[in-house]
Amino acid sequence: MKALILGSGTSTGVPRVGNDWGDCDPVEPRNRRLRASILVESDDGSRLLVDTSTDLRAQLLANDIDRIDGVFWTHEHADHCHGIDDLRVLRYGRGGPLLGYAHSDVVRILRQRFGYAFAGQHGYPTIISLESLDRLRICAGIGVASVQMPHGPGETTGFRFDSNGKTIVYATDFSAVTKEMLDLFYGCDILVVDCLRREPHPTHCHLEMAIELANATLAKKAVLTHLDKSMDYQTLSREVPEHVLVGYDGMEVTA
Asked: Where does the record place the Metallo-beta-lactamase domain (predicted)?
């Protein structure tokens, strides 16, 4: 089972518009970050996409992805869902719409924003069949479990994916760790975790919290993602423990 980091950046990416690299060395290619998303792939080739970032088309092209078996959304913020139209090409040649899942509140909001994608219109087929996560236990042969996480005043969904005894967890855009998160994430092989910056943030995880979560869950590997322009790849790589990796676009981690 493997995790492919499609995008490891914040809502503004790195560099920010205006060629603002902050503390990131522009010569280091791993500092160039698209908006956060991930692809989980099982041994038999099943692929699940988490979030349709605003950079989705570029991510699919860069990683030669022309097929997925399901798509999941962590929450409704623009950087995590406004690339939804790029799923149209992945619908071509299929006998039916792509399978899509999110928390019930997110389902409602996505239907309001992107109704055409879930109902079709003007002769165009439905792109995605969107359903709530409530009763979902398996998708394309991959076990799926989820938990709601604090995201400042709102919430986001953390996911645990299981296949052939291996587990990948994706937890981004959270601002506190709950018992429910610890229980679901415990013993995972790979924890891909939000790590906006070193200093605490009102709606995101910071470096110390991310490492504490990795240790508390006994994650075999942790991959830091959703990194802002203060998080230079080489500098951060020298700071973190051996079992913690600094994520970058195109990074592939195998469980």
From this structure: 34-226
